Amino acid sequence: QVQLVESGGGLVKPGGSLRLSCAASGFTFSDYYMNWFRQAPGKGLEWVSYISTTSNTIYYADSVKGRFTISRDNAKDSLFLQMDSLRAEDTAVYYCARAMTARAAFDVWGQGTMVTVSS
Amino acid sequence: DIVMTQSPDSLAVSLGERATVNCKSSQSVLYSSNNKNYLGWYQQKPGQPPRLLIYWASTRESGVPDRFSGSGSGTDFTLTISSLQAEDVAVYYCQQYYTTPYTFGQGTEVEIK
User: Fold this and answer.
1) Alpha-carbon span B5 to B76, nearest angstrom
2) How far is A41 from chain B (nearest CA, A)?
3) For range A76-86, the mean pLDDT
4) Is the CB of residue B107 less than 8 Å away from at least one CB of chain A?
5) pLDDT confidence of residue B69
6) Minimum Cα–Cα distance from B39: chain A residue
7) Is B52 within 8 Å of A62 when comparing Cβ atoms?
8) What does the buried/exposed string (b/e) look like for B75-108 if buried means 16 or more CB atoms within 10 Å of the residue's CB?
9) How high is the pLDDT of residue B20?
10) Contact status, residue A19 vs residue A83, Cβ threshold 8 Å
11) Which residues from B are below 8 Å from A70, CB to CB?
12) What are the DSSP calls for A57-94, one per residue?
């Protein structure tokens, strides 16, 4: 079935790094635009980053620009988020989600992976 | 950035009654060239990821019960649950995908009265 599975979350100290992965299955990954979202504990949803099907267009939220890097490997049906210079305010559940076109709603979401930034 | 504001923050509705959630965007999310509103509604239950209910402001996602409906255009939108069921207890978010940064409303918590 259509599925997205995130991994790579964990506990990291402020200033540290973490790399999240999102494994896709059940659909043609290379046809879909991919995004990362996050949700801090008890808070609402926040969009983090977008990558087009061929990786030629990438966007970031201002809150992560210059610290996070999104990438994808269509041959391996995988999406990544490299997170550097982590801050306490980056603590959240991180979700990957797909969209059919460049500007479309997000119809499939992963279960999320928790990132905790704390000393 | 487009600011999305939902009202109310929470509401309690009796089983079988109508629940209405409102969403207002700080600028229009209607794209004139295709007459589509770039607005979606999501349902999130505790410990679960968001689930897409409605896209293009009024198109129901496959598998979503027909008691869920969306309406509105431009800057004002509504999600209606026509007959609230126990399984509809959740937080509901509107989201614009007209432009990045994609932004969400703060969420509306729907519970049973």
Assistant:
1) 10
2) 11
3) 98
4) yes
5) 98
6) A105
7) no
8) bebbbebeebeeebbbbbbbbbbbebbbbbbbbb
9) 98
10) yes
11) none
12) -EEE-TTTTTTEEEEEEGGGTEEEEEE-S--GGG-EEE
Which residue, B103, B79, B73, B75, is CA-closest to B92? B79
pLDDT number for residue B77:
98
Closest CA to A83 of A33, A15, A35: A15
Q: What is the pLDDT of residues B27-45, one digit of tens each?
A: 999 999 999 999 999 999 9
Distance of CA B64 to the CA centre of its chain: 13
Q: How far apart are CA A30 and CA B34, in angstroms?
A: 26
Question: What are the chain B neighbours of A105 within 8 Å (beta carbons)?
Answer: 40, 52, 55-56, 61, 95, 97
Pairing of strands A10-12, A113-117: parallel
| A40 contacts on B by Cβ (under 8 Å) | none
Instruction: Read off the tokens for A66.
Output: 């210059």
